[in-house]
Design a protein that fits this description.
- The chain has 280 residues and is of the alpha/beta class.
- It is 35% helix and 19% strand.
- It has one domain (6-279): 3-Layer(aba) Sandwich (Rossmann fold), CATH 3.40.50.
- It contains 8 helices and 10 strands.
- The strands form 2 sheets. An 8-stranded mixed sheet has the order 1-2-4-3-5-6-9-10, sandwiched between helices.
- Strand 9, helix 7 (232-241) and strand 10 form a beta-alpha-beta unit.
- Helix 2 crosses helix 3, helix 4 (146-158) packs across helix 6 and helix 6 packs parallel to helix 7 (232-241).
- The radius of gyration is 17 Å and the shape is globular.
């Protein structure tokens, strides 16, 4: 039910290009809503093609974009020009998407890992109204040691643009060897992270969890019980603090970080579909 995908760009506030990928519905298919996909650290929107096509099959148009310093968008790999850039870009994407939607069409934001953190922080700050949020293995707790916390506190002040390896072990993204191999050979995937981006991740997660008791947006939180790349405790803390009437939580025991890319992702997609069907 997906028409041909399209690639477009917009110019961010600092002049960098941001690449947008759209997965529209075929002509004549009833539109149930629009989903904005926000990818994780070191990757790009194109890795969610299978997720987008599944959402298309359920009647949702999809728009993804490569975040600053990722994929085909501008900026050095892993860089972050300022502390709010990732949030500002999502605000621009929401604005441009709303502008071309019919009034009353639901807008859902779906973010994975760092993208889940960006989406969650965006919603927690009320930067733009959205109808629903889906967080997949969000980086709400990066699990930093005391020494790493010290580095994150000091380095961005001295060398904010210093970029180093992000330390992610690709073996733990999925139990599927084909997914791991594709990730490792993907030329648009990188392993860089700047001091400023590391600080954003380290501080925005706890700040988002702290605002969970005041949550106002219907949210589906799905996370991997055997996540080795972000701490599942961050999701547990958020779920425990958030209003139960608004936040639905699923922990998929035994799964690695990329729950949509696991060998048995069927229960993940089933949980997503059920939640969407109940609301849209």
């Amino acid at each position: 039910m997906c028409a041909d995908t399209t690639l477009t760009t917009f110019v961010a506030s600092d002049g960098d290009n941001v690449v947008i990928q759209d997965w529209p519905l075929e002509s004549g298919v009833r539109l149930r809503g629009v989903v904005i996909l926000v990818h994780g650290l070191g990757e790009h929107a194109g890795r969610y093609d299978h997720v987008a096509h599944q959402l298309n099959a359920w009647g949702f148009a999809v728009r993804g974009y490569d975040q600053c310093g990722h994929g085909e968008s501008g900026g050095a790999p892993g860089s972050l020009p300022n502390d709010t850039r990732l949030l500002d870009d999502l605000a621009d994407i929401v604005d441009s998407t709303r502008a071309r939607m019919d009034k009353g069409t639901p807008l859902i934001v779906l973010g994975h890992s760092m993208g889940g953190l960006v989406a969650g922080r965006f919603v927690s700050l009320g930067m733009r109204p959205v109808d629903a949020l889906v967080m997949s293995s969000p980086a709400l707790n990066p699990g930093l040691s005391a020494f790493q916390k010290l580095l994150v506190a000091v380095l961005p002040k001295l060398f904010p643009n210093l970029r180093v390896g992000n330390g992610l072990n690709a073996s733990y993204i999925s139990h599927d060897p084909a997914v791991v191999a594709a990730y490792q050979s993907d030329k648009l995937v990188h392993d860089r992270i700047s001091a400023r981006l590391a600080r954003f991740i380290a501080t925005a997660g706890p700040a988002t969890v702290a605002l969970a008791p005041q949550w106002k947006v219907p949210t589906l939180l799905m996370y991997a019980g055997d996540d080795r790349l972000v701490q599942p405790q961050g999701s547990r803390d958020f779920a425990a603090a958030a209003p139960q009437a608004l936040v639905t939580t699923h922990c998929f025991e035994g799964l690695y970080h990329e729950i949509f890319n696991e060998l048995d992702a069927a229960p993940v997609f089933a949980a997503l579909r059920q939640w969407l069907d109940q609301r849209f």
